Fold this protein.
Amino acid sequence: MKRNDLRIVLAGLSLAGAYLLALRPSGRRKWAENYRKVLFAHRGFHDNASDRPENSLKAFAEAVNRKYGIELDVQLTKDGVPVVFHDFTLDRMVRDREGRPVNGKLSDYTLEELNRFHLLNSGERIPLLEEVLKTAGGKVPLIVEIKMENSDRSCEVCRKADQLLSEYKGDYVVESFNPRAVLWYRRNRPDLIRGQLSDGFRKETGSLKYLPFEYLLTNFLTRPDFIAFNWKYASNLSRRITRSLYRCPSVAWTIRDRSVMEEMKKQFDILIFDSFDPEKK
């Protein structure tokens, strides 16, 4: 082999090694045994056309009643109170007393101001994280997504959520799209099971900006205990390597069809569903 060819081979092996090291998760797997036994209701067992909209206390109570695990979203109000709500903006899900969409970000409003509104056409309001934890009551496992915008460098939502979650008596894990949040938990709550959320960002946004996050290249910093990936991009090489080589538990979000669920059981360990009842044939 010529010297230049050898250099190319060595450079390729070095890059491959660096890539594999960058993907390395924590190695903790035993925690997932109980999580594999249940299906997780996305934002509770909800129906947005009913009085049981997503991320409402009624949706969470129904998930508990049906013995489904719960996936939920946490972010902070303007006055720093942890509430359960998915979107950063309110207009899709929140209505005023006249039934009009409410504009602006959730973080633009205090809790008192938010309590004047309701979720879609229901009588439900945006619940406190504390209320949701009481509703779950340790009866079903939780997957708690920490909602943190890229501009937020304080990780205050992690600290505030942890003050409540650390007192919770049931099983729960945390996850986030933002590696900074996952890193916060590694540094401040190393005992807590943490997960990295990801997606096919190139196809979803048309941008290469989030490519390192799509391919999980921050794992070497955050050392997640599981990877939660959009099931549509199950073929993502990094996701498959973390599951097959490192045996890192893989979570599928969000499945909206029974046939897809059956197919994804082969490629994921934990399944999150939405918009159908898995118990109905």
The CA atoms of residues 93 and 232 lie 25 Å apart. The chain has a mean pLDDT of 94.
